[in-house]
Recover the amino acids of this structure.
C-alpha cells in the first residue's frame, strides 16, 4: 500500500467513526475521557520506556536541551495529560446546544443546533503531551481526530495513542476515531492535507515554518496563527503605575510566548515621565530597549530602533518602544504592524478605551489588562486547542466550541411554500 | 501593468478602504444604501443602454433564451435591485454587537465584539443584479467588496458598479470599497484568488463548474455549496395528507433550484398506501418517477432507478423514490448520498423527529415542513448572500452575520498575570 492509499484508508476510517462520535451522549464521552486519564496513569512506566527511545535518539541527533526538555514525558507531564483529560471531561459539552429558535410568520420554528465538525487533523511538533490534550478536546466535542506529531516524538506519540485507543475499545467505541499517524514518512502529511472529502479542519501547532508549510499545502481549511506581534499603547490619560505593571508583566513574565508584548507605544503627553520610568524598569529586568529617536532622547542605554524592529516578534527580553503623537497614530501603527493577535491600551479615558476596543481589529483587544491573559484558559474557554489570527470560523483563542459548527433546524406542522 | 499587478492594486485599495468601512456608523451605511437605491432608479435608462450591448452580444454568441432572460436588466429587475438595497438598509447591523461578556475570577471582563471580515470577493455568473445585491450585503456588514461577474454581463455590471460608486463618493466614502473588476480577462480571477493577504473570503455564486474552479484555485477561504440533493423521509407515523402536500411542494413548486427535493424515502409500513398515492399525485403534475423495486411493484409507470439516481441532482421534474425498512435505513441512505443541503422528515412521532433532527447532520434539517423553506429569507436571515454546505465558518443559508467574525474584548482595571 502506498502512503497515499494508507492515509486515505486512515482518514476514511476516521470519517466513518466520526458518525458514531457525533451521536455519543455527554456521559459516555466523559466516561471515555476518565478511562483515558486512568489509562495514562497506569501506563506511565511503558510511556517512560517508549519516551526514552525518543530521548536517546534525540540526544544522538544533537537536539538542544530545550528540545529534549519539551520531548520528555516526565511523571509530571504524564500526570498533566491525565489531569487535562479530566478537566476537559468537566467542561460543558457544546454539542446539541439549540439557540436562536424563533417562530416565522408562517408558524415554522427555525433555530440552530450545534454539531461536531467531523474529522479534525492536528499537525504538531515536539511536545508529545499534545497527543492527549488535543485528542481530549476533539473527542469531547464529538469529533474524530487524526494526530500527526513530530518525528522526534514518534515512539512517545504512538505509545500515548495506544493507551487512548485502548480506552476507546473498552467503551466499545471505534478506535479509528482517534488515530496517531503510524509512520514518520514526511509524505504522510502531504497526503493527509489533500483529503478534503474526509477531513474537515486542519490545526497546525508549532513554529511559523510548520504553519506556513501546512497552510501552503492544504486543500482542507486550516486554522492558524503565524506569530504574535502584540502592542501596548500607554495613553496620555494612563495611570502610569498600572501601565508599568502591565508592561513589565507583558514583557518579562514569559517572554518566549506569542502573547508577550513586542512593541510599546507611548503617548507624547506622558513620554517625558513614562519613557525614563519604563526604560529603567525594563532594563532592571534585563530587557534590551530598541527605541525611536524620541525614546533615545528621553532615556539612557537605548538601542536605536530600525525598520526591522516594528514588525519583529522577538520572543525574548527585547522590546521596541515608540513615542506617538496621539491615539490615531497608535492605531495606525498597530494597523500597519500587528499580527492580529493581541493589542492593549492603558488609559483612564472612557472615550479612548471605547475607540480602541472598536477600531483595533485584532483577535483580542484589551483595556488595562496584560496581554498575557490572551489565552483560552485565562479568558474562560476552559481549554485551548489553538489560536486563530485569521478571521474565518474562529478569531482568537479557540476552545471546544470552535471545534463545532451549527446546523439549522426547522420544526413545522405541515407548512409548504406558497 | 500586468493583470497580476492590476488585481493586486485593486485588492490592496479594497483592503485600505475596508478599514474605513469597518468603522462606519449604521446610519451612514443605511444612507449610503438609500443613495445607491435612488441612484439605480435614476440611472435606469443608462443601465438599459449598457445592458442592451450585453444582450446583443449574447444573441450574436447564440446564448439560450433562458440565459438572455437572466441577463436582462428589465425595469422590474432594476427596481428589484433598488428595493433589495432598501431592504438590506432596514436589516439590523450585525457589526458592534457585544456578546458573552463574563467576569473572570480575577475581575477582568471578557466578551466578544462582532466585526466585519474585511474584503469579500464575489465571483458570479450571468445575473447582473447580483452586483447590487451582493454589494449591499457586504457594505451593510462593513466589508469592502470586489465583484467579478460573467463576461456576458460585463457592460451591465460595469454600469451598475459606476452608479454604486457614485453613491459612495457622494457620501465621501472611498470608492475602492466597492469595485467591479474592469476586465473580462479570465486571468483576473486566477490572480484575485491568490491574494490571501488582501482578500478575506471568496463567495462563488453560480453553477457547479464555476464553484469547483474557484475552490480548486483559491488560496483564500471559499464558502460554497456544489449542489442540493435534498431528501424527504415519510415515516411510518406520518400524516399522509401532510406528506403529500410537502412532497409535491418540494418537487413541483420550483424544480430547478437547489432546495427542491430530489429523493423521496418512504417507510415500508406506509408504502402500500403512500407509494401509489404519491406516484399518482406526482405523475399528475408531470413528474417522472424513478423507483426502487418495491416502488415499481406498488405503482404504475415507474422508471426503474439505477445507481446513478441516488446521488442525482435532477433540477427537473424527475424524482427518485425508495422504500426503506425503517428510520435507521433512511438516515443511512441520507448519510451516504446527501450533499449536506436540506433533509426533511414527515412524522408524527416525537422520538423519530428528535432522532432525525439530532442524527442527520446536513446544514438544514426539517420536521414536517417543505425543503423549499431552506432559504435565508424564509428562515429569517433577512437576505441571503449564499449558502454553505461546508462546515467551517457557516453552514447553511448565509446572511449578514455570516459576513462578520467576532474578536475578543477584555476590560480590566490593571490586572496582570501571576
Amino acid at each position: 500500500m502506498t502512503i497515499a492509499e494508507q492515509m486515505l484508508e486512515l482518514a476514511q476510517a476516521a470519517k466513518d467513526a466520526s458518525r458514531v462520535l457525533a451521536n455519543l451522549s455527554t456521559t459516555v464521552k466523559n466516561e471515555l475521557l476518565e478511562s483515558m486519564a486512568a489509562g495514562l496513569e497506569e501506563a506511565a512506566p511503558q510511556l517512560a520506556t517508549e519516551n526514552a527511545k525518543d530521548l536517546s535518539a534525540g540526544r544522538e541527533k544533537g537536539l538542544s536541551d530545550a528540545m529534549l526538555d519539551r520531548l520528555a514525558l516526565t511523571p509530571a507531564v504524564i500526570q498533566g495529560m491525565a489531569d487535562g483529560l479530566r478537566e476537559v471531561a468537566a467542561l460543558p459539552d457544546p454539542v446539541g446546544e439549540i439557540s436562536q429558535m424563533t417562530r416565522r410568520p408562517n408558524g415554522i420554528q427555525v433555530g440552530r443546533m450545534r454539531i461536531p465538525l467531523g474529522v479534525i487533523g492536528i499537525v504538531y511538533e515536539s511536545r508529545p503531551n499534545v497527543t492527549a490534550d488535543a485528542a481530549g478536546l476533539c473527542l469531547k466535542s464529538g469529533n474524530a481526530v487524526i494526530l500527526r506529531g513530530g518525528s522526534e516524538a514518534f515512539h512517545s506519540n504512538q505509545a500515548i495513542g495506544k493507551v487512548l485507543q485502548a480506552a476507546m475499545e473498552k467503551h466499545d467505541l471505534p478506535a479509528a476515531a482517534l488515530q496517531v499517524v503510524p509512520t514518520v514518512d514526511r509524505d504522510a502529511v502531504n497526503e493527509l492535507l489533500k483529503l478534503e472529502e474526509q477531513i474537515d479542519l486542519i490545526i497546525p501547532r508549532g513554529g511559523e515554518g510548520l504553519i506556513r508549510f501546512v497552510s501552503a499545502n492544504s486543500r482542507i481549511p486550516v486554522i492558524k496563527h503565524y506569530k504574535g506581534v502584540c502592542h501596548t499603547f500607554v495613553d496620555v490619560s494612563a495611570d502610569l503605575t498600572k501601565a508599568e505593571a502591565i508592561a513589565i508583566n507583558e514583557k518579562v513574565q514569559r517572554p518566549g510566548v506569542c502573547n508577550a508584548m513586542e512593541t510599546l507605544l507611548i503617548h507624547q503627553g506622558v513620554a517625558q515621565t513614562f519613557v525614563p520610568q519604563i526604560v529603567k524598569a525594563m532594563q532592571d529586568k534585563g530587557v534590551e530597549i530598541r527605541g525611536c529617536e524620541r525614546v533615545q532622547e528621553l532615556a539612557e542605554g537605548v538601542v536605536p530602533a530600525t525598520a526591522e524592529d516594528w514588525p519583529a516578534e522577538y520572543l525574548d527580553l527585547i522590546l521596541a518602544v515608540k513615542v506617538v503623537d496621539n491615539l490615531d497614530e497608535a492605531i495606525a501603527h498597530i494597523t500597519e504592524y500587528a499580527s492580529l493577535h493581541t493589542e492593549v491600551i492603558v488609559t483612564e479615558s472612557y472615550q479612548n478605551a471605547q475607540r480602541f476596543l472598536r477600531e483595533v481589529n485584532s483577535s483580542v483587544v484589551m483595556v488595562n489588562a496584560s496581554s498575557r491573559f490572551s489565552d483560552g484558559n485565562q479568558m474562560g474557554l476552559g481549554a485551548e486547542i489553538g489560536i486563530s489570527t485569521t478571521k474565518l470560523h474562529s478569531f482568537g483563542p479557540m476552545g471546544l466550541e470552535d471545534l463545532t459548527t451549527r446546523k439549522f433546524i426547522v420544526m413545522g406542522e405541515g407548512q409548504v411554500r406558497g
